Amino acid sequence: MTGSKPKTMRQQLVLMNIAVTGVAVLVAIALLFVVELRTWREAFVKDMGIKADIIGSQCTAALTFGARTDAEEVLAALREDSRIEHAVVYTRQGEAFALYRGRRAVAPVPAVPPPDGHLFGSHHLELTRPVLLHEEQIGTISIRANLDDIRSALARYAAVSVAALLLALIVASVLLARFQRAVTVPVTDLAKLMEGVSRDKDYARRAGGQGPDELASLAESFNEMLAAIQNRDHELARSLFELQNANRKLMDLDKLKSDFISTVSHELRTPITSMKAFVELLLIKPNMPEQRKRMLLEVINDESDRLSRLIGDLLDLSRIESGGMGWRDEEVAPREVVEAAISGIMPLAQNKGLTIARSDQSDLPAIRVDRDRLIQVIMNLLSNAVKFTPQGGRISVQTRLTGQPDAIEVSVADTGPGIPAGEQLRIFEKFHRAGDVLTHSVEGTGLGLTICRQIVEHYGGRIWVASEEGIGSVFTFALPFRTLSEERPATAPYP
Amino acid sequence: MALLFLAMLLALPAFRVVGHAAEPNGPSEYQLKAAFVYNFIKFVDWPSGEWRAGETFRVCLLGEGPATALFEDLNGQEALGRRLTVTALQSPQEARSCQVLFVAASQTARLTEVIDALAGAPVLTIGDTDGYARRGVMINMFLENKRIRFDINAEAARTAGLRISAKLLKLASRVYNAAPRGE
Question: Is B51 touching A (CB cutoff 8 A)?
Answer without folding.
Answer: no
